[in-house]
Specification:
single chain; mainly alpha; rod-shaped; 115 residues
């Protein structure tokens, strides 16, 4: 039976790990052990921050809506309560975009909900 040297597989694995850490600073981009740890942490942060991004956008929409409905003499919470009672299916994202880009359309929605 012929001899099999395994160096190529190890090098391939090491190369792939170091490719993932391109742009990292210090030993995390050159040393395999530190690179593996950096990849693991980066994955955890990416997962957590994808969730955080959803919260950040929801906060942005709420702030935009509050600013827009204050111009019509309502508060955000009063507007959302009135909207729910009205039976509207518009969500915060849609309302926020409308208030930001089409204020006249948003004004019509606010007057319809106020009644």
């Amino acid at each position: 039976m012929s001899r099999v040297k395994r160096g190529t597989i190890s090098m391939k694995r090491r190369r792939n790990v170091l490719k993932m850490t391109k742009g990292y600073r210090f030993g995390r981009s050159t040393k395999e052990r530190q690179a593996r740890e950096a990849i693991a942490h980066a994955g955890n942060y990416a997962f957590a921050h994808r969730r955080d991004k959803k919260n950040d956008f929801r906060r942005l929409w709420q702030v935009r809506l509050n600013a827009a409905v204050r111009e019509h003499g309502m508060s955000y919470s009063a507007f959302m309560g009135a909207l729910k009672a009205y039976g509207s299916t518009l969500n915060r994202k849609m309302l926020s975009e409308m208030a930001h880009e089409n204020p006249e359309t948003f004004a019509r929605i606010v007057t319809a909900v106020k009644k």
